[in-house]
């Protein structure tokens, strides 16, 4: 059992244990849905009396996203994790891709988290780029994308969708359904559990990096994320050095094998 000193105000508690408590509270009063479910339901989602639509925007850490995915899975909840191409994590790097696949294997689905402000700076066609990003996610992870969410929509002021992909900021999910977010560890209307009696239909956005076993503050978490990424890069560099040294030691043998395979089949 954790010895962590929990804040007296639940709105200030961003520990993983509190996140699990939130999930259990949601399950007692509401049905949970992913955006895959929402895509299948369309407007009929409003016929469900009480539900929470589970959305995670993955902005900095796939490892932290996996931690939330495991918590959701333990409560038999399926959620949608929106992945950002232009963050400082690489969804297609081996370690990250394995974690994303693990999230999918739990029954969750992934969506596209896109940066409309960056698209505008680069002068690219946002719809065309988004379509290509979606296609790559779908082919690489052998999955289907059902929804897309804008990164920092208050900065760009723009959201959009392509084809039949859901825009998480369209009126159905932003006005008809109550939208609640934990952005930068600041619940705008109080922690979600304080709103379960007030709202029957909720679109809940959580961000992976702000929920931590030790309930750390937002600034500390971002700096820790930088340290963790540096350590991973350092470890990868050491591994590469070892691999290349071994390659040099075996160069003559490997060169002969290469020549035999490609030049003298």
Write the layout of secondary structure elements.
Blueprint: H1 16-29, E1 31-33, H2 35-41, E2 51-58, H3 62-74, E3 80-84, H4 94-105, E4 109-114, H5 116-122, H6 126-141, E5 147-150, H7 153-156, E6 166-167, H8 171-176, E7 178-181, E8 201-207, H9 218-249, H10 251-262
Parallel strand pairs: 1-2, 2-3, 2-8, 3-4, 4-5, 5-6, 7-8
Helix pairs in contact: 1-3, 3-4
Order of helices and strands: HEHEHEHEHHEHEHEEHH
Percent strand equals 5-15%
CATH class of the largest domain: Alpha Beta
Radius of gyration: 21 Å
End-to-end distance: 62 Å
| CATH architecture label name of the largest domain | Alpha-Beta Barrel
The global form is globular
At the fold tier of CATH, the topology name of the largest domain is: TIM Barrel
Largest sheet: 8 strands, parallel
Helix content: 40-55%
Number of separate structural domains: 2
* SSE-based structural type: alpha/beta
- The number of helical elements comes to 10
Using brief descriptors, characterize the structure shown:
single chain; 265 residues; alpha/beta; TIM Barrel; 2 domains; globular
Descriptive report:
By secondary structure, this protein is α/β, with parallel strands linked by helices. The protein has two domains: 12-215, TIM Barrel; 219-262. It contains ten helices and eight strands. The chain has helices at residues 16-29, 35-41, 62-74, 94-105, 116-122, 126-141, 153-156, 171-176, 218-249, 251-262; strands at residues 31-33, 51-58, 80-84, 109-114, 147-150, 166-167, 178-181, 201-207. Strands 1, 2, 3, 4, 5, 6, 7 and 8 form an eight-stranded parallel β-sheet that branches. α1 (16-29) packs across α3 and α3 (62-74) runs parallel beside α4 (94-105). The radius of gyration is 21 Å and the shape is globular.
């Amino acid at each position: 059992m954790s010895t962590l000193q929990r804040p007296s105000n639940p709105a200030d508690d961003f520990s993983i244990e509190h996140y699990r408590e939130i999930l259990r509270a949601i399950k007692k009063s509401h049905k949970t849905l992913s955006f895959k479910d929402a895509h299948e339901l369309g407007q009929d989602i409003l016929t469900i009396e009480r539900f929470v639509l589970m959305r995670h925007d993955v902005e900095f850490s796939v490892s932290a996203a996996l931690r939330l995915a495991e918590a959701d899975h333990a409560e038999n909840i399926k959620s949608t994790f929106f992945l950002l191409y232009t963050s400082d994590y690489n969804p297609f790097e081996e370690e990250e891709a394995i974690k994303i696949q693990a999230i999918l294997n739990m029954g969750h689905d992934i969506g596209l988290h896109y940066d409309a402000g960056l698209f505008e700076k680069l002068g690219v066609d946002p719809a065309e780029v988004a379509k290509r990003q979606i296609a790559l996610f779908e082919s690489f992870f052998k999955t289907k994308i059902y929804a897309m969410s804008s990164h920092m929509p208050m900065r760009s002021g723009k959201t959009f969708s392509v084809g039949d992909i859901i825009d998480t900021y369209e009126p159905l999910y932003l006005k008809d359904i109550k939208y609640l977010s934990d952005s930068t560890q600041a619940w705008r209307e109080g922690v979600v559990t304080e709103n379960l009696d007030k709202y029957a239909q909720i679109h809940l956005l959580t961000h992976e990096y702000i929920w931590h076993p030790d309930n750390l503050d937002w600034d500390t978490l971002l700096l820790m994320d930088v340290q963790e990424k540096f350590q991973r890069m350092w470890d990868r560099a050491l591994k590469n050095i070892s691999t290349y040294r071994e390659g040099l030691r075996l160069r003559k043998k490997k060169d002969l094998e290469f020549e035999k395979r490609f030049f003298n089949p």
